[in-house]
Amino acid sequence: MHMWNSFKRRQRILADGHVPWACEAFTHQHGQELVQNPRLRWCWRVLMIKLWNHGLLNGRTMNICNKHLEVLESQRADPKQS
């Protein structure tokens, strides 16, 4: 994903240990875009799964990212629940 690669370069993610933090930060920074575009959201989830398969991301971080996206999705569906 071009967005992820650009984010990594800007944030200077150099060590494997920084990947969980970067995933959370990316989700918070680009969450609205991910929620508005289901295909982009799907690509982000596939990328997180690939990072998990390589041992760079843990299930806890994936859960945090997905829960954040779910909150944004529910706020988008019902703006009064903010």
From TrEMBL:
Pfam families: VEFS-Box. InterPro entries: Polycomb_protein_VEFS-Box. It comes from the Eukaryota. Keywords: Metal-binding, Transcription, Transcription regulation, Zinc, Zinc-finger. One of its GO terms (cellular component) is nucleus. GO terms for molecular function: chromatin DNA binding; zinc ion binding. Residues 1-62 form the Polycomb protein VEFS-Box domain. Belongs to the VEFS (VRN2-EMF2-FIS2-SU(Z)12) family. This is Polycomb protein VEFS-Box domain-containing protein. It comes from Aegilops tauschii subsp. strangulata (Goatgrass).
